Amino acid sequence: MKLQDKVALITGAGAGIGEATAKLFVSEGAKVIVADRNIEQALAVAEALGSQAFAVQADVSDAAQVKTMVEKAVAHFGGIDILVNNAGFGTLGTVVTVDEDTWDQVIDVNLKGVFLCSKYVIPEIIRRGGGAVVNLASTISVVGIKDRAAYVAAKGGVAALTRAMALDHALEGVRVNSVAPGVIASSYYDKMFETVEDPVAFKKGLAARSPLNKMGEPIDIANVILFLASQDSNFATGAMFTVDGGYTAW
């Protein structure tokens, strides 16, 4: 049990990578706060996991909601040892075509959300004697991608913020790392498959982005998050772990 008696707060845990991470953490002995803007999804995940999980609704871009989320988590489980900043979303657009409101939303959820959750959770981690923060960056933090300007900017910011946080809190016993997923099967892509003219060809195109010629699964990322949240990565901080099927090795 790599996380026995640890308490982890996972944002965006109602589906995808967040849900897979919540399930894996519970299987490794952790108590998990399943946080999501969609409370129905969060409740469904928490119910499936039993008494080791507790669902909380929160929009990570709203400071008041984040503060309340953390207060509820601490009241329910007594503290927090691990934070997984997973909540996020992307949208199409260049700096010319994306509108300002959409730009703000993408930055607020993906980057400001990491700031706010870390702001309120790190003091709780320090009170417990130290722990870990894992931020979800992206391969586009490294290589970029066309027509995703806001998302690229946000995830690049997450990668940089991870390094800053690692330096700021190293002597307080808080390790901070990030994971950079490649193309991962998710409801995000499922919705795309429903709208494109040739979903089979579209899926093959996504798979072909990596030398392994396949899309990753949420559990592939969850396994790396577990490594970074546990003592298996005791000497790792300020690093970004890329899990993209070799996409950035082309």
TrEMBL record:
InterPro entries: NAD(P)-bd_dom_sf, Sc_DH/Rdtase_CS, SDR_fam. Gene3D superfamilies: NAD(P)-binding Rossmann-like Domain (3.40.50.720). It comes from the Bacteria. PROSITE patterns: ADH_SHORT (PS00061). Signal peptide: none annotated. GO terms for molecular function: oxidoreductase activity. Keywords: Oxidoreductase. Belongs to the short-chain dehydrogenases/reductases (SDR) family. This is Short-chain dehydrogenase. The lineage of its organism: Bacteria, Pseudomonadati, Pseudomonadota, Gammaproteobacteria, Pseudomonadales.
